[in-house]
Each structure stands twice: as C-alpha cells, then as structure tokens.
Amino acid sequence: MAGLWFFLALGLSFTTTGVQAFLAGDAGTGDPVWWAAWTVEPMFAGLLILLLNFEAVILAHGVEPGHHWWTRIKRVLLGTTLFMNVIPQLDPARFQLGSLAVHLIIPVVVYGLAEVIPVIQARSRQVVMQGYADAAEHDSPAETKKVVPQPAPAPATPEAPTPTPPAVPAEPVKRGPRLPAHVVDALKRARDQAAEDGRGFAPADVQQVVKVPDAMATAIHADLITT
C-alpha cells in the first residue's frame, strides 16, 4: 500500500506544474500570482489524500461513507486538476501531442488510484479477518475433548428410596467465536438495520459483514439475537 500512496503523490506532484501554468498564465516570477499558483494543486492533493486515508480506514472496518458528497468532492478535486492540466496544452503556440497525452493520462490514472486505494485496503482487511475465521474453525474441533466413560461405583442399597422425577439436563448454550470489537460493532449495526427495515436478521446477514462458514455464521447469529 505504501507504494500506491507514493505513486499517487508522485502523480499529483506532476499535475502541479500543469495547474501552475494554467493559473499563472503570462505572469512572471516577480508577480505574486506566479508563486501563489504553485500552492493550488498541493492544496487539492492534500485534501484528496486526507479524504482517501479516512475512507480507507472506515472501509477497512466495514463502514461505508454513506454520503453522496463524498464522491462529489473527490470528482471535483480530480476533475478540476484534469481540466487545468489539459487546457494549457491546447494552446496552438505550445501544442505538442505527447505533452497533451501525458497531461491527460496522468490525472486519469490519479483518479483511478484515488478510487481503488480505499477498496484495496478494505479487501486486505477482509482477507485478514477471513484468515482469523479459518483459524478459529480449524482449532474448534481440537477443543472438543473425547469423553472416556468411567466405571460407575457400586450403588448403595438405600433403606427407603424416595422416587424423584428425573432431572432434565440443561441445554448447553452454544456461543459463537470471539471476534474483534469492531467486527462485533459492525454485526450489531447490521442487526439493527435489519430491524429498522422490518425484516428478520439471518446468518446470511452475518456473512455479508464477515466471511465465515455457515456453521460459524449460525453461531454468531445466535449470539447476536440473544444479546
């Protein structure tokens, strides 16, 4: 992931020159506008990286941004960068096809990276959680000890046995595997959302939050509906 962040920052550094050329125009180095134009693209890039970092964190914990302006802000930042990089290259006095192609392709690649980096981090987190679930499933049979029957002692002859109703053994409570706190929180939110939607909460809803086998999903579901 560090490599993706590095190349994203590198691409944004390249687009800074195109944005500066668009904003500075014919201004020289003695004009404050020429110097101020260098700060616009770093500001856009900083806002974009902060948004992507926060999005990657919440997606890794199974939480969606859940607001239409989230995507709009990213598109405005990257679309503005693309526009300001391409327009100066269309000037007939400085037109070069190679330069136009580079200034067009790099912002598009940066936009693609901005969209996939949070998804990659979320999928990586999902793979790690699946590994934990597989390990828990693999270890669970070993925890079940085989009960070896022991010889019963010789019964004593009571003087006056009083018949008593047989005791009904208590049904053991099956509990699901221990999960990280943030996964439990995501499962509870899914349970509450199902209740708000007027539908039943099922083991399939558990598997949408964390990829576990059917038996483990059933056990986790039983914990949630009894909690």
TrEMBL record:
Organism superkingdom: Bacteria
UniProt KW Membrane keyword: yes
Region annotated Disordered, chain positions: 134-176
Membrane spanning residue stretches: 45-63, 75-91, 97-120
Sequence ranges of Basic and acidic residues compositional bias: 135-146
Alphabetical keyword list: Membrane, Signal, Transmembrane, Transmembrane helix
Signal peptide positions on this chain: 1-21
Biased composition (Pro residues): 150-169
Protein name from the UniProt record: DUF2637 domain-containing protein
Organism, scientific name: Saccharopolyspora gloriosae
